[in-house]
TrEMBL record, chain B:
It comes from Nocardioides islandensis. It holds the Pfam family DUF4439. Signal peptide: none annotated. Residues 7-140 form the DUF4439 domain. This is Ferritin-like domain-containing protein. It comes from the Bacteria. SUPFAM superfamilies: Ferritin-like (SSF47240).
């Protein structure tokens, strides 16, 4: 038998939820979405991811910070994916500040990216929805990959 | 509906395949001529072997019969050159990333935590083997 085991690995997203846990509310700031968050336990995590990514994109856009625009392109892709995940209301949600330090320079950029990568991994760990967990984990891995690139 | 055990079985099948292919790629890599590539292939082989064992034990703990390795696996159609080996290795990691992301979606707790770490490691390994960084490793359909 020739098993195409590697090819078998290409699997699509799954919406299965398992053992939902509470999102990390400590990472959020109060907002008008509180009621929505009660209805959707992942709303806080999603809003936090949008805030983080928006902030990273804004800071990467400053002159001399993101040489080659690698991180700006990354976060633009991430924001689009988050928008799709959130549906039409995503862009209407207020984006509180990310809380990440806004120091200038490439070294500070790497620090911010690393902090965001870790927080996204944490949000993925805590997400109630498997689909959202997958997206957040993929974003976290995408930042790690970008940071590891020469 | 996919259960956590189903997802872990899929990941184990992927580790079997990855180990097989890495074994072949290792044989196509020269430690003296391309020491960095050799080191990266070796490191990846050791990591995937550890994950195979971890997943096997995890499935046994769940009372499941771990998916066995197949006798053989389809090999990447890449030339046996250093560039070809790197390309093939990046391809393995890309497919593994898809699997780990699938595990993230279908598990919770420690299993999900492992899968998040494995996904991150696969994404950085891909870059180490010369691939461009992917914005959404394991989730190309999300982009």
């Amino acid at each position: 038998m020739t098993a195409s085991g590697v090819a078998v690995l290409g699997l699509t997203a799954c919406t299965t939820d398992s053992s939902p846990t509470s999102p990390d509310t400590s990472a959020s700031t109060p907002s008008a979405t509180t009621q929505a968050a009660e209805e959707d336990p992942d709303r806080v995590a999603l809003d936090r991811a949008v805030a983080l990514t928006t902030d990273l994109l804004s800071q990467a856009g400053q002159p001399g910070v993101d040489i080659g625009g690698r991180f700006a392109a990354l976060h633009t892709t991430h924001l689009a994916a988050l928008d799709r995940a959130a549906g039409a209301s995503a862009s209407a949600s207020p984006s509180p500040g990310s809380g990440l330090p806004s120091l200038p320079g490439p070294r500070a950029l790497r620090k911010r990216e690393l902090a965001a990568q870790r927080e996204l991994a944490h949000l993925a760990q805590e997400a109630a929805s498997g689909a959202l967990a997958r997206l957040l984990a993929s974003m976290s891995a995408g930042i790690a990959a970008c940071l590891s690139a020469p | 509906m996919t259960t956590p055990v189903d997802a872990l079985q899929t990941a184990l099948a992927g580790e079997h395949a990855a180990l097989y292919v890495y074994g072949v790629l290792g044989a196509r890599t020269s430690q003296s001529a391309t020491p960095l590539l050799f080191e990266r292939i070796s490191e990846a082989y050791v990591a995937h072997r550890a994950w195979r064992d971890l997943l096997t034990n995890r499935l046994v703990d769940e009372g499941a019969e771990p998916t066995p390795a197949a006798p053989t696996y389809e090999l990447p159609d890449t030339p046996p050159t250093p560039a070809g080996v790197g390309l093939a290795a990046a391809g393995i990691e890309s497919r593994c990333a898809d699997t780990y992301a699938y595990v993230v979606a279908n598990t919770s707790g420690a299993d999900r935590s492992w899968a998040i770490g494995a996904l991150t490691r696969a994404a950085t390994r891909m870059v180490g083997f010369g691939a461009a960084p992917q914005p959404l490793p394991g989730g190309p359909d999300l982009a």
